[in-house]
UniProtKB/TrEMBL annotation:
GO terms for biological process: nucleotide metabolic process; purine nucleoside triphosphate catabolic process. CDD domains: HAM1. The active site is at D99 (proton acceptor). Binds 1 Mg(2+) ion per subunit. InterPro entries: dITP/XTP_pyrophosphatase (IPR020922), ITPase-like_fam (IPR029001), RdgB/HAM1 (IPR002637). HAMAP family: Non_canon_purine_NTPase. Its cofactor is Mg(2+). It is an enzyme of class 3 (hydrolase). Substrate binds at S7, N8, N9, E10, H11, K12, S100, F185, G186, Y187, D188, K208, H213, R214. This is dITP/XTP pyrophosphatase. It comes from Alkalispirochaeta americana. Pfam families: Ham1p_like. PANTHER family: INOSINE TRIPHOSPHATE PYROPHOSPHATASE, INOSINE TRIPHOSPHATE PYROPHOSPHATASE/HAM1 PROTEIN. Belongs to the HAM1 NTPase family.
Length: 233
């Protein structure tokens, strides 16, 4: 069974592969790059749920040969359809999308849905992970409340526009100095798990794949989607 991930992010794909492997889900995750293209969707929803569904529907339309408003593509629609058929035959795979971010309590749950674009301005290059983390720590300098939570909204969209949608959270605190480890990306170096005394970047990828917001959301989808075989979970 194939699913098509509505993301060009290879790191996200590896993480999702690891989560599904832990769950025992018998699926193969394909990305747009496997079909010879990348795509982008204007994420103008005002919730994680709205943006996840925008991404899923944008990619689902592309593999049907349609280009929805707000969606861009760097290949021809015909090429996409040909490569999809070569990989999957006549069966159109469901589309998996997620929208995730970090909500910091003292900042009124910012950056929230803007986590990936936090601190960006029209007249400067986008910030990288290090820049976004530095900005977040500066904004928290005068705050005692360091509480925060990650959010992941995951949606599984079928060919007939039926979909399953799940939102999960992962609670922690923001440290004062980033603590990098061997794993993690994004805000992981500043997101502390108080019961562990470690940031997410300091725990193993295998452990993260079992307890993160994304892991919880995908586990719930796997239980809800009867076409995903999950053994003992």
């Amino acid at each position: 069974m194939h699913i098509l991930l509505a993301s060009n992010n290879e790191h996200k794909r590896r993480e999702i592969d690891g989560i599904l492997k832990h769950l025992g889900a018998t699926v193969t995750v394909l990305q747009p790059c496997d079909l010879g293209f990348s795509f982008d969707v204007v994420e103008d929803g005002d919730t994680f749920a709205a943006n996840a569904l925008l991404k899923a529907r944008g990619l689902a339309a592309l593999i049907r040969g349609e280009l929805l408003p707000g969606t861009s593509l760097d290949a021809s629609l015909e090429t996409v359809k040909e490569k999809l058929h070569a990989l999957c035959g006549s069966q159109v795979p469901p589309v998996l999308a997620d929208d995730s971010g970090i909500c910091v309590h003292a900042l009124d749950n910012r950056p929230g849905i803007y986590s990936a674009r936090y601190g960006n301005t029209p007249d400067a290059p986008p910030l990288d992970d290090t820049g976004r983390n530095a900005l977040l720590l500066r904004e928290l300098e005068d705050h005692q409340d360091r509480g925060a939570h990650y959010v992941c909204n995951a949606v599984l969209l079928y060919e007939d526009d039926r979909y399953l949608q799940i939102q999960e959270t992962w609670h922690g605190e923001i440290v004062k100095i980033p603590r990098d480890g061997k794993t993690g990306f994004g805000y992981d170096p500043v997101f502390l798990l108080p019961h562990r005394g470690e940031t997410v970047a300091e725990i193993s990828q295998s452990e993260k794949d079992q307890i993160s917001h994304r892991a919880k959301a995908l586990a719930a989808l796997a239980r809800a989607a009867d076409w995903i075989s999950v053994s003992g979970k």
